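INFO  loader      accepted 1 record
INFO  loader      residues=487
INFO  predictor   begin
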Amino acid sequence: MTDVEPLGGPGGYEDLVMCDALTLSGLIKTREVSCVDVMTAYLDHIERHNRSVNAIVALRDRDELLAEARERDHQLADGHYLGWMHGFPHAVKDLSAAKGLPFTSGSPIFADRIADADDLFVARIKAAGAIVIGKTNTPEFGLGSQTYNPVYGTTATPYDTSRTAGGSSGGAAAALALRMVPVADGSDYMGSLRNPPAFNNVVGFRPSWGRIPEAGFIAQGAVVGPIGRSVADVAQLLSTMAGPDAGAPLGIDEDPEVFTRNLERDFHGTRIAWVGDWDGYLATEPGVLELCESSFDAFRNIGCRIEAALPDYKPEDIWQLFLRWRWWAQLGLVDLYDDPQTREQMKPEFVWEMEHGIALSALDVTKAAAARNDWQAALTKMFETYDYILAPSAQVFPFDKSTHWPTEIDGRPMDTYHRWMETVAPWTMTSLPVAAMPVGFDDRGLPMGIQIIGRHGADRAVLQLAHAYEQKTKWTQRVLPPALLPS
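INFO  predictor   done
INFO  writer      dumping tokens
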């Protein structure tokens, strides 16, 4: 790990891939660089670096992608500018559908599936001018914060390629860290937009439920959201992915243009609660809490007050609520479990989720819904005193990528495949906006992150605090993966 000054300017492929997304967008719009130059730079960079981390999968044919980039240049020459992502290479997380591309969800059951349409947010990204070059890797059905599957293999963090990139947006975060895409999309139920940014020293954002439209009448835990190398890039991508849609009756009806505005704001007098390990309830690897707490000075430097404080709700009750709600959510795929041929291809963790979900009664779900309301009320009460909440993004540092999941933390056994990520579960269950920000590195050069949690619907306010913190720390810009350092 070495602090470096980032490269900049269109002086070569290294410079192009090192540009932040908004700078690159400006260079393309003013035709200082061509879309063909950008595509060539990124494809060359992917060819050089992807094999070390296995982040981008199902990469499309180079000639086809360059032909699409030439078409973007012709459009610009004719005065037809599609949007801020005009000519951007973009890889879609393999839990989402991009028309004509593999859509495996990391499962051998769907190893040959090709998407016949775009998911809504993918269509919006394309409409903004992006060229989809392939997919980013994910664990099977997104289950587990470790990105490995029998279709595409395992994804590593570029900060130590023997270790996991996290999950389930591990491919997206590792691709960003290695500068193989300008921005990325991800999704999050149990920290998948929070754990991978922590393990890859990038920025993630879990939006309020409904900010990016989801079909249906039940606010489940899963959301899609943006990942980037800066908060400004993340906010810009959110503006593209977000916005109301007629097919999402519970969506937030607010113009997403708000996320394109300046993020500067005065934070003097802002009160922040630090929940840490919930007074020892959460097991944490030595060094995690200390590194997260080292971020406090940056928050204080922008005028915030940080106090240790906990909501008036038992964390063990939140965990039981989370388990039941997630079991219920997985039952949308119960037909795969019911078929013996597909069930035998499922990872054990998926079978575990299904069997617990099937055992739920209507009364169990009703009680879980009531408990979720009670937990929401407790947090609402806490936000009467505090403006934001801080929590670790993970309870462990990136671990060996051959390990399916940590079975213990600091001598304390983990009783499920995801118990080691319990730090993210409380905020999922209230569908609050959360920014995942880097906090630095341990003495092994392994990265860690922190969650900035805000009130429901206060997505821009969370991004503003994240931006102010970023200006004081600049971890993503300062500390590059070893493979990108001058030899």
